[in-house]
Design brief:
CATH topology of the largest domain in chain C: D-Maltodextrin-Binding Protein, domain 2
Largest sheet of chain C: 6 strands, mixed
CATH class of the largest domain in chain C: Alpha Beta
Radius of gyration of chain A: 22 Å
Shape of chain C: globular
Strand order of the largest sheet of chain C: 2-1-3-10-4-11
Largest sheet of chain A: 2 strands, antiparallel
Distance between the termini of chain C: 54 Å
Shape of chain A: globular
Chains: A mainly alpha (505), B mainly alpha (159), C alpha/beta (336)
Number of strands of chain C: 11
CATH architecture of the largest domain in chain C: 3-Layer(aba) Sandwich
CATH superfamily of the largest domain in chain C: Bordetella uptake gene, domain 1
Radius of gyration of chain C: 22 Å
Largest interface: A-B, 62 and 72 residues
Distance between the termini of chain A: 68 Å
Number of strands of chain A: 2
Structural class of chain A: mainly alpha
Oligomer: heterotrimer
Structural class of chain C: alpha/beta
Strand order of the largest sheet of chain A: 1-2
Helix content of chain A: over 70%
Order of helices and strands of chain C: HEHEHEHEEHEHEHEHEEHHEH
Number of helices of chain C: 11
Helix content of chain C: 40-55%
Strand content of chain A: under 5%
Number of domains of chain C: 2
């Protein structure tokens, strides 16, 4: 109950005209950077940092976190409408969101995305509110071996062989992991696969790859197939929004599962992007309609969106209580905390209760404001769909190229985006699955670090992954998830064989 | 214009080259498993080997694929449309390296809208000048994220 | 053409005239004419980033520049990205590199396309201290206890720190040599991460800067056992209910004979910049260190401020290279 009182106090702090105005401004700016590919939540928060220097810390964190929520919402918009993920964490939303939009169900897909995202976010904040003490202690139990097992679990729950050609899936995964190794190796300090080429020091940016594979790749496909965006049902109709909202409770299982995955990944911290992939993978396996995933299934939008936002909000807790950045954006906010004169740590909850609980209260409000504002922007984007493709197509290309520049400010990245655009087209044509490559790039780098750190600590013994109950459970669960499709297939074929003889009799 | 087999083989060649690069790059470092676990080259080396082997098998499968391999993945018409999109894009990026993103964006939009989209001069000029101007306001003024600039911006004293 | 040039010249003159009074003290004839870029050789939120943004805040607050400041983070490859970027901006004094000692140490251990003397030095503005930290409930009360345990331990105790072959690992090797012990060094993504790993008991010690672990100390997760300094830190406010930074003994007094180890917060200009440009920036940075914002930052992060420029700074770099080269050579880190 102490937390409840603190939260009420937090609402008193957050619910002023000044703070609500900041939330609205933050969310709006967030939506804007979220929509632009390349420029994402970390950039949005970074560019606001100088403005916050002259603010009090509560206002500052409210502005920054609201920007983050806005960016998370905005990222889904372009994922669904144009197959261009505005944010890394909305890549998984394209899998079913874009097919829905192409079927003329854009309104429905966007409504599902925003509402379920808001639901996930609120559930994440509720967990923070109720369990802050427990969660902090739990997060401390994560050493390198545990981190690795978390990444392994995320990977194994998404990768299911059998949907695409297995060899091509392996190529995708191996390419993703290889790209992730380029640049400075953070365990040995060696420059790997850079071939003394200055532009390779940065490594191959995941964001640039996404812009290429999805944005430019999609343009190539659209043009080659000679179809333009279906502008038939681009208008937003209030009734479609309402009917989608009414149907949302039907997907409560997916929403709860997605939120659970997101909260888990936010706390551990595997990050929102990996969370959305993991949630999508699990939903596909567990849903009765799993076979329809990838063809425009609402559950395929709801699952990644709830997880993405739940992870985004849940990651704020380890950030405040321990100084662990659960995402790139949280890392920037941590820098902000230092500049405002606050030190993340357990004492922050006691000494600066107004700050912590004001921020937590603002997370409830900010996300509600986020859902409303982002729904209000939908007509604007839907209107873009009715612009002739010969105009909007080239403009999207320039947005992608400019986006590739804003990632690191490097001319070389523009070429990289073009090359990956061509690669994205070829991969689609030849059934190389793109999603495993993206996931491998997202987790590859961190997973390798965590693995090698734990090997340094265990002096090269892999048994460290089963050395303690926590890490052992996660690792085993991961392997079971990886094996389960094979086991299921095996069981099916066995049962078929058993049933065959009586049928013949 | 392009058969499935041709595209498969081209893709496999790229994968093979990338795999070889990973192996060559990994060999600059230790590739073994020492007392402190896997070394810097351990994973890149093995990933490279996986890519090389997989590319060879997929290549062999493609060569043996028969009729499916001969079907077209890109008809002459589609191919022409694709090149018509892709070449201006390459030109755009090439020009951007020299003249900066603002000028290149204007030139690209101007060319594509006029020559490919066959829009009128007014629409073309509106979009080709409007997008770089909006980008300027958004990135340079508001976000203070400097975009790539070229001689024009330098001459104007803006870079 | 001529008309345009005239207009531009007039505008420029007008701008300078309008802004001039505030910068009357600026030395030399050079002053920036367009927006200045601070190139940060760490990611957003890193120590160098906070340093650069503090300088940015002080400059903005006190109008020390006639133009505005943009901060860009180029921290890939332990900062190599930023240095390579600045190196290619030949003669452009509108870019200022914010760094640590990685400017001159990174080229020793990593194959990177820049050398320390490529850059025009401005100066070091502060020095960040290093401390030896253990878990709060660790049985080792003092650094001497810890060393005794480390000598007896098999397998060796785990020492955590930031990226490999950087300050934390260098200090760890120095401790190993000076006190004749052996640690297993585990590199993490930064001091913050190493601090949390220590709080969780996954490593046995780390060598974080005060600001990286102050939250953990106050929260009863970790505690410092000694500071790598000639004398204890200056008397200040209490950090926990009973202790302040000044209560932490020096490591040398605890049986780790390392007199001094710290990390400078440095600034550089790209290659080929002129003496006038250098002088201008030295003047700006000097005035930054005199602002209350800067003092507040120094106190909060428990660094020592000492503005080092010109020959003194060059001398510091030379000495540090010589000393570090010996350690790197002994550890086998030296590249070529």
């Amino acid at each position: 109950m102490a937390n409840f009182d603190a939260l009420m106090h937090g609402f008193a702090v957050a619910l002023t005209v000044h703070h609500v105005t900041l939330m609205v401004l933050g969310v709006l700016l967030g939506i804007l950077v979220g929509v632009l590919p390349g420029l994402g939540a970390p950039n949005g928060v970074t560019l606001l940092l100088p403005i916050t220097f002259s603010m009090d810390p509560v206002s500052a964190i409210i502005l920054l976190t609201s920007t983050y929520w806005g960016a998370l919402f905005g990222g889904s918009t372009t994922s669904i409408l144009f197959n261009i993920p505005g944010e890394p964490s909305s890549v998984a939303t394209t899998f079913d969101g874009y097919p829905m939009a192409r079927d003329g169900r854009a309104t429905e897909a966007l409504t599902f995305a925003f509402m379920s995202a808001g639901f996930g976010a609120l559930l994440g904040v509720v967990v923070i509110t109720l369990l802050s003490g427990f969660v902090t202690g739990f997060a401390l139990r994560f050493g390198p071996a545990e981190y690795f097992s978390v990444y392994l679990l995320a990977f194994c729950s998404f990768i299911a062989f059998g949907s695409g050609p297995p060899l091509k899936t392996i190529v995708s995964i191996a390419l993703g992991f290889s790209f992730a190794t380029v640049g400075m190796d953070s365990v040995s300090g060696a420059m790997r696969l850079t071939f003394d080429f200055n532009d390779m020091i940065r490594g191959i940016s995941f964001l640039v790859v996404v812009i290429g594979l999805f944005g430019i790749g999609e343009m190539l496909l659209t043009l080659e197939e000679g179809v333009s965006f279906k502008s038939a049902d681009a208008r937003i109709r209030p009734r479609a929004v309402l009917s989608a909202i009414a149907r949302l409770p039907r997907y409560w299982v997916t929403m709860l599962r997605g939120s659970a995955v997101g909260i888990w990944m936010g706390i551990t911290p595997g990050g929102p992007t990996a969370a959305s992939f993991m949630s999508y993978g699990l939903a596909k396996r567990m849903s009765k309609r799993g076979a329809h995933f990838g063809k425009g299934e609402p559950e395929g939008v709801i699952a990644p969106e709830t997880a993405d936002h739940a992870a985004g909000t849940a990651a704020m807790l380890p950030m405040l209580a321990l100084g662990i950045p659960g995402s790139a954006t949280a890392a920037v906010m941590l820098g902000g905390l230092m500049i405002w004169g606050l030190n993340p740590g357990p004492m922050l909850f006691i000494e600066r209760a107004d700050f912590v609980w004001g921020m937590i209260a603002s997370m409830y409000l900010g996300n509600v404001i986020g859902v409303i504002l982002v729904l209000a922007t939908v007509p604007l984007f839907a209107a873009m769909l009715s612009i002739p493709f010969t105009i909007i197509g080239p403009v999207i290309v320039t947005v992608c190229i400019v986006g590739a520049w804003t990632v690191a400010g490097a001319p070389f990245d523009l070429w990289l985006a073009v090359v990956f655009g061509l690669a994205g087209w070829a991969m689609k044509k030849l059934d190389y699955p793109i999603a495993p490559l993206i996931l491998a790039m997202v987790i590859g780098d961190r997973a390798e670090d965590a693995f090698r750190q734990s090997m340094i600590m265990s002096h090269g013994s892999i048994t460290v992954l089963w050395s303690k109950p926590l890490v052992g459970t996660i690792s085993t669960l991961a392997l079971v998830l990886l094996a389960s499709p094979f086991i299921a297939a095996l069981r099916r074929s066995l049962r078929a064989r058993e049933q065959l003889p009586p049928a013949q009799e | 214009m392009l058969s499935r087999m041709q595209l498969e083989l081209a893709a496999v060649a790229v994968v093979f080259v990338l795999g070889s690069l990973a192996v060559i790059g990994a060999l600059e470092h230790e590739i073994g498993w020492a007392s402190d676990g896997p070394q810097a080259g351990y994973f890149p080396f093995r990933l490279g080997i996986i890519l090389i082997v997989a590319s060879l098998v997929i290549g062999a499968q493609a060569l043996a694929s028969g009729a499916r391999g001969r079907e077209l993945v890109l008809s002459r018409e589609s191919g022409r449309r694709m090149i018509g999109f892709f070449l201006p894009l390459v030109g755009y990026v090439a020009i951007a390296q020299v003249l900066g993103l603002y000028v290149a964006t204007a030139l690209y939009l101007g060319f594509v809208l006029r020559a490919m989209g066959r829009h009128g001069w007014q629409a073309t000029a509106g979009v080709a000048l409007g997008v770089p101007l909006a980008s300027w306001m958004l990135f340079e003024v508001w976000f203070t994220v400097p975009l790539l600039k070229g001689p024009l911006e330098r001459w104007l004293g803006l870079a | 053409m001529q008309r345009n040039t005239f207009v531009r010249a007039a505008l420029a003159a007008g701008a300078i005239a309008a802004l001039a009074p505030g910068y009357a003290q600026a030395q030399g004839e050079w002053r920036p004419t367009r927006n200045v870029e601070f190139v940060v050789t760490s990611g957003a939120g890193g120590g160098t980033d906070v340093f650069a943004r503090t300088v940015q805040a002080a400059i903005t607050k006190h109008n020390l520049l006639p133009v505005s400041v943009i901060v860009t983070n180029k921290g890939a490859g332990a900062g190599a990205e930023g240095f390579v970027y600045a190196r290619s901006a030949q003669g452009d004094a509108h870019k200022v590199v914010f760094a640590t000692n990685n400017t001159w140490l990174l080229p020793l251990v990593s194959r990177v396309a820049f050398k320390a003397d490529d850059f025009t030095p401005i100066g070091a503005l502060a020095f960040d201290e290093f401390m030896l930290w253990v878990k709060y409930d660790s049985p080792h009360k003092t650094a001497a206890d810890f060393l005794a345990a480390a000598r007896a331990a098999n397998p060796p105790l785990r020492m955590g720190g930031s990226q490999p072959k950087d300050t934390d690992q260098t200090l760890t090797s120095l401790i190993q040599r000076a006190a004749n012990v052996r640690f297993t060094y585990v590199p993490f993504r930064g001091g913050g991460e190493a601090g949390v790993q220590l709080a969780g008991g996954h490593i046995d010690a780390n060598t974080n800067n005060p600001s990286e672990s102050i939250g953990g100390w106050r929260g009863g997760q970790v505690r410092p056992v000694c500071v790598f300094r000639r004398e204890p830190m200056a008397r200040g406010n209490l950090v926990t209910t009973t202790q302040g930074w000044h209560d932490i003994p020096t490591c040398a007094s605890q049986g780790i004979p390392i007199e001094e180890f710290n990390m400078p917060r440095t600034t550089f200009l790209p290659p080929g910049t002129t003496a006038a440009q250098q002088a201008f920036w030295v003047g700006v940075m000097r005035r930054v260190t005199e602002t209350p914002e800067w003092q507040e930052y120094i106190t909060r992060t428990s660094q020592s401020t000492r503005f080092l420029t010109g020959e003194a700074f060059a001398d510091h770099i030379r000495k540090d290279i010589t000393a570090s080269r010996d350690i790197f050579e002994a550890e086998g880190w030296l590249i070529n």
